[in-house]
Amino acid sequence: MQNITIFLFTLAALCLYCESKYFESRCDLVEELRKQEFPEDKMRDWVCLIEKQSERKTHKIGSGKDGSKDYGLFQINDKYWCSNTGIPGRDCNVTCVDLLSDDITKAATCAKLIFERHNFLACENVGAESMSALISDSQPAYYKSHQNVYPTLKSELGNFEPRNLKDTTGPGEKGRPYHMSQDRANDVAESEGEYGMNIAASDDIAMNRSIPDTRLDECKYWHYPEELPSTSVIIVFHNEGFSVLMRTVHSVIDRSPPNILHEIVLVDDFSDKENLKSNLDNYIKRWKGKVRLIRNAQREGLIRTRSRGAQEATGDVIVFLDAHCEVNLNWLPPLLAPIYRDYRIMTVPVIDGVDHRTFEYRPVYQHGTNYRGIFEWGMLYKENEVPEREASLHKHPSEPYKSPTHAGGLFAINRRYFLEIGAYDPGLLVWGGENFELSFKIWQCGGSIEWVPCSRVGHVYRAFMPYSFGNLAKNRKGSLITINYKRVIETWFDEEHKEFFYTREPMARFLDMGDISEQVALRDRLKCKPFSWFMENVAYDVYDKFPKLPKNIHWGMVKNKATGVCLDTMGKAAPAYIGTSTCHGAGNSQLFRLNEAGQLGVGERCVEADVNNVKQAFCRLGTVDGPWSFDEGHSHLIHRLHGYCLTLQPHSKQLGLAPCDPNNTYQQWTIMHKKPNW
Ligand SMILES: [Mn+2]
């Protein structure tokens, strides 16, 4: 903090276009200030005055004397605005010192004086220098806020819309499926095995191929603020197919405004594929430094690598993309506009699908329907059509809307804000749950998440995860992802909701989640709201699909007395028959739960039965009950609707229902669990 004096603003120079008199020196200003006393209510006048001006003012990037590129009026807290510094002779030069000190009245007084005398509306530029050193409160002034600056829908084509799109032909052009000839079946099989996607097809498709515009037509007519924040696109990869990775980069370069796209940061999480080494270094030289490549010295996992990318980036906003994406037309301005308005908004593009075999580009969602991200109590990511309570807030279906969470891979956020809220919990391992951690943190600690229908990004959904976690998974007992979920819910949930998680994932109680004291301290420091607030005000539609869970009466392996085998999902995709196999006690496919309301579940599936078979199907949305009860005296699992018992057929070894017989050991079951030896 330099030069803290009793006055709080210093006028250093004035703007060229401002007409009124200015102070010749700092002393004049001090004198002027000392003569005046402004009561509290006058401060409010000043605030109103500035807010009104900020609405009408076009904010332009100005270069501060310190070389910074901040701009505009800053909102310091709910009441106060400030602006400072710029190029003498052109910009309005005002220096804020400390609006949060006891001398706040004087600060307001000073600001009022300055703004009155220098008629901000007439200034070409309103410059400002970073005030990180000057403001120490949790409402820092270095964030540029442009309250009430919304995009506008007009009849003419939007200001960032591409003009003159060229017509191209070739494999995969216009996003059409590319079918390779039969004689290359070996190449296809090989690359699908190695990458989880058909890299041989990708190699034949142009890096800058055309793709269909999947947006609502309305999207073309939105006009966005011209001075959107500079943006770093961060792409983390590990052994990605070269052409798929580079097509991601090409699409970003080709479809982003060059003056807004500050850089692309590629972060290599310790790949070992040969063509991602010097070959990649050489390829990106064509972009003359706009595409930077940094490499981890050891495998860090997606989560830590993303946080590293955020630290190394130098744009105001960071956008995370997976390494197998193609951004669509005019994808970036709609993502940035909400952040420009309020730095605490994180934005999420709508994802289109790119087929992992043919690279066909096609929408995932039905045209014109908006979805948002929610979750079930086992922390599986789910989506739900935007509920009326949110949809009714918007005039146009193409407007951004609020969402409780997001899928994880693709989003935009103010960089400084992301780092300030702790980026990702560094205790999260590799992959999974980080989307929830960030979402809960943002919402509960004063920010929000918006999905942006006019920003579309194609994403290749792989057939499978083509690489292992290597050493990252070493020395960890139990499911890595469930450990992550446990960290997240133990930090952000309240007691009631934690119980839902442990009901749905009973083994998670035994997992060692490590130390979360720093996460809890962060939550307290940021004065975050309770999870119940989030559920009532943001994620209210979760309960419609995934109601509060009744307690488990029994959970664990379901073991047959006659044969000693256990019920098992057999790793099949639902709906499917349930089978039996040797009891292993490790949970997962053999972990069944019977709750107080009669639901017999395994994972997110429910057990359904008739006389001839026993099936697993996704539990009906919005229900948590079922037809099952357990008769401990007879060890019977009874289907109450039929009044029959779960039976293993002695000859066929198939499961079914049969009239209950107390002497039939093929109808006798124990439901039990052991504490795992983790
Ligand atoms: Mn992906």
From TrEMBL:
One of its GO terms (molecular function) is metal ion binding. It is an enzyme of class 2 (transferase). This is Polypeptide N-acetylgalactosaminyltransferase. Coiled coil: none annotated. It comes from Arctia plantaginis (Wood tiger moth). Its cofactor is Mn(2+). Its EC number is 2.4.1.-. Residues 92-110 form the Glycosyl hydrolases family 22 (GH22) domain. CDD domains: beta-trefoil_Ricin_GALNT7, LYZ_C_invert, pp-GalNAc-T. It is a single-pass type II membrane protein. InterPro entries: GalNAc-T (IPR045885), Glyco_hydro_22 (IPR001916), Glyco_hydro_22_CS (IPR019799), Glyco_trans_2-like (IPR001173), Lysozyme-like_dom_sf (IPR023346), Nucleotide-diphossugar_trans (IPR029044), Ricin_B-like_lectins (IPR035992), Ricin_B_lectin (IPR000772). GO terms for biological process: protein O-linked glycosylation. Pathway: Protein modification; protein glycosylation. GO terms for cellular component: Golgi membrane. It is found in: Golgi apparatus membrane. Residues 160-180 are annotated as: Disordered.
